[in-house]
């Protein structure tokens, strides 16, 4: 007896961890945000540029690990020339490569001011609010005069633009703050500690960077032997002594207490303090008070390529998620000065400063705060199919509406049941439907049904008002008046697309 043929095994549909599918409502909300951010950036004189999502791995920055397979933190693969390529980790390192290729040519006007947005990719452990793919929106100024007021003005401008962007997105003053620090001040702390090992110092900075999340007690643990989190995972610390931990903590806590004598002798630390003073004066002169932009010595920023001032935008609002749990959003954007990134390609210092908004994270915050319209856009006008043998007539109507700039579609499902067609149009969020049976066709007429007005009939208690709305909800017009009738409905409900 022959064996029965095996049934083909079905492939399981599943989404990789740390990624998300996005529907019309989320995409529409992102579009709203992006256009508001773009308007602010362009008001500051920045121009758009795009770079690919894939770069040579060694071009992505010195923060990448140096090993045979450089995939820690980034998604990497080898091409047919055995060159390592990676998905971009951020939007700044690719910009540095872009500028370096054109530096000193007529194709690049210096100082170069550009903005760009798009997906970036992190090969990291996913978690709540932490995705492997997310959207960033950056602005950068590259090639200012080295040092002095020009660089300070560029840094101050980034801080002011960050504040303006938050308010353009509907976050009121007092509900956010742009915090500023300087890596040179932190380098002064390194001098005072006498740390020569780059790895140990990176551990110190990463510990300080977690202050808002872990508090002083958690940071002290990470500066010392290490910390065990709630899940039991242990993170090895920087191994500092008690006195050195106290110095780090005192340098990042705000206050007017006595300064450790070891910090006063650091020239680079003093230079960092002076640069912060310059930024403070410039933003104050433009009317940005400490309620919008403030100096905060605890700001570190995560990437290693920052060389001077660093900034971070923090939301101060508390809210609750869909399960009623308290949510504090914290940082939704940041940036800083990175004078050494372009120089990796050119062998000379090229001043640069930039700011990046984490669009995906900020969108989640704005949605919870009710600052974004999370509804999907109005769907298309749906032309129904009453007679199967007259599809060409219905398609002609669709074309007429589209040629008039109106979103429209022909119902392509089973036309047997008109009720199902109307349900489809309702689920598509269509503002209206077009119906033409044989009787209407013989008279040269079409029925135009206002679905938005019709949906509101159930809330109308007054009989005369009900009859009036019912008459308006479905009207019969000449075929030649189809576009006019649809436009009237769109105007009635202020329907727009895009």
UniProtKB/TrEMBL annotation:
Domain Aminoacyl-transfer RNA synthetases class-II family profile, residue spans: 38-380
Subcellular localization(s) per the UniProt record: Cytoplasm
Catalyzed reaction equations: tRNA(His) + L-histidine + ATP = L-histidyl-tRNA(His) + AMP + diphosphate + H(+)
Keyword annotations of the record: Aminoacyl-tRNA synthetase, ATP-binding, Cytoplasm, Ligase, Nucleotide-binding, Protein biosynthesis
Protein biosynthesis found in the keyword field: yes
Region described as Disordered: 1-22
Coiled coil: none
Top-level taxon in the UniProt lineage: Bacteria
EC number: 6.1.1.21
GO cellular component terms listed in the entry, alphabetical order: cytoplasm
CDD domains, alphabetized: HisRS-like_core, HisRS_anticodon
SUPFAM superfamilies on file: Class II aaRS ABD-related (SSF52954), Class II aaRS and biotin synthetases (SSF55681)
Binding site for L-histidine: 90-92, 122, 136, 140, 301, 305-306
GO MF annotation, one: ATP binding
UniProt key word Electron transport: no
Enzyme class per UniProt: ligase
Major subcellular location class: cytoplasm
GO biological-process terms attached to the record: histidyl-tRNA aminoacylation
The protein's assembly and partners: Homodimer.
Similarity field: Belongs to the class-II aminoacyl-tRNA synthetase family.
HAMAP family attached to this UniProt entry: His_tRNA_synth
Name of protein: Histidine--tRNA ligase
Organism: Bradyrhizobium erythrophlei
């Amino acid at each position: 007896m022959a064996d029965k043929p095996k049934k083909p095994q079905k492939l399981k549909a599943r989404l990789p961890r740390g990624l998300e599918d996005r529907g019309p409502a989320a995409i529409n909300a992102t579009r709203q945000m992006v256009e508001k951010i773009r308007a602010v950036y362009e008001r500051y004189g920045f121009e758009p540029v795009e770079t690919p999502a894939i770069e040579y791995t060694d071009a992505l920055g010195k923060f990448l690990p140096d090993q045979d397979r450089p995939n820690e933190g980034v998604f990497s693969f080898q091409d047919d020339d055995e060159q390592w390529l990676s998905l971009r980790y951020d939007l700044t390192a690719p910009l540095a490569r872009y500028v370096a290729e054109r530096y000193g040519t007529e194709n690049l006007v210096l100082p170069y001011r550009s903005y760009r947005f798009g997906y970036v990719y992190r090969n990291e452990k996913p978690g709540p609010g932490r995705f492997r793919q997310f959207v960033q929106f950056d602005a950068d100024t590259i090639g200012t005069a080295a040092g002095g007021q020009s660089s300070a003005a560029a840094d101050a401008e980034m801080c002011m633009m960050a504040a303006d962007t938050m308010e353009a997105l509907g976050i009121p003053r007092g509900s956010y703050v742009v915090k500023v620090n300087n890596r040179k001040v932190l380098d002064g702390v390194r001098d005072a500690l006498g740390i020569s090992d780059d790895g140990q110092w990176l551990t110190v900075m990463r510990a300080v960077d977690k202050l808002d999340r872990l508090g002083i007690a958690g940071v002290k643990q990470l500066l010392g032997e290490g910390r065990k989190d709630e899940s039991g995972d242990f993170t090895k610390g920087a191994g500092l002594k008690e006195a050195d931990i106290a110095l780090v903590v005192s340098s990042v806590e705000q206050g007017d207490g006595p300064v450790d004598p070891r910090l006063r002798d650091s020239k680079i630390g003093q230079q960092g303090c002076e640069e912060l003073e310059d930024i403070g004066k410039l933003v104050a002169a433009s009317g940005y008070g400490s309620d919008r932009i403030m100096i905060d010595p605890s700001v570190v920023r995560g990437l290693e390529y920052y060389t001077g001032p660093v900034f971070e935008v923090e939301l101060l609002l508390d809210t609750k998620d869909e399960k009623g749990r308290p949510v504090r959003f914290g940082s939704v954007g940041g940036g800083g000065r990175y004078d050494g990134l372009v120089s990796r390609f050119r062998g000379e210092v090229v001043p640069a400063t930039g700011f990046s908004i984490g669009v995906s994270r900020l969108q989640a915050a704005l949605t919870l705060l009710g600052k974004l319209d999370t509804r999907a856009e109005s769907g298309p006008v749906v032309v129904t199919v009453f007679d199967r043998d007259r599809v060409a007539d219905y398609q002609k109507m669709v074309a007429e509406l589209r040629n008039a700039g109106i979103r429209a579609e022909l119902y392509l499902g089973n036309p047997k049941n008109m009720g199902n067609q109307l349900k489809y149009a309702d689920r598509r969020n269509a503002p209206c439907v077009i119906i033409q049976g044989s009787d209407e066709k013989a008279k040269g007429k079409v029925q135009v049904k206002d679905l938005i007005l019709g949906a509101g009939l159930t809330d109308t208690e007054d009989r005369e008002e009900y009859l009036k709305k019912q008459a308006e909800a479905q009207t019969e017009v000449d075929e030649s008046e189809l576009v006019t009738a649809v436009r009237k409905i769109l105007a009635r409900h202020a329907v727009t697309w895009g």
